[in-house]
Design goal:
Blueprint (H helix, E strand, L loop, with lengths): L2 E5 L2 E3 L5 E8 L8 E6 L6 E6 L5 E3 L7 E6 L4 E6 L8 E7 L10 E5 L2
Parallel strand pairs: 2-10
Antiparallel strand pairs: 1-3, 3-8, 4-5, 4-9, 5-6, 7-8, 9-10
Length: 114
Amino acid sequence: QVQFVESGGGLVQPGGSLTLSCAASGFNFSPYYMAWYRQAPGKSRELVGTITSSGNPNYVLAVKGRFTISRDNTKNTMRLEMTNLRPDDTAVYFCNRFGATDSWGPGTQVTVSS
C-alpha cells in the first residue's frame, strides 16, 4: 500500500537549518506531483510546497526563499531543505502526493526555539 516515512526533524534555534527526507513506497512515484505539508499545534494541516514530476518546485509565500524542495525519482525520495527557520515554522511535517487526503505518514517534528 501507499506509504510515506518522513525523517530529519529536530530542535533548532531560530535562524538555523534542517533538512527533512521523505521515503515513498507502494505506488509509481515518478509521475506524481508531490508535496510537503505541515501541521502546527492547534492548527489544520497546511501546504508548504509542491514539486512536479520533473522536479520544478513551488512554495507558499511564508516559506519562499527559505525552503527548497527536491526529489529523486530513482530512489522514490523527496527532500525539504529549510534555512533561516523561525518559531512559526514549528510543526509536524508530512509528505504526500499533492492533493491526497489519505495515506499520511507519521510526520517528523520540527521545533524552532531558543
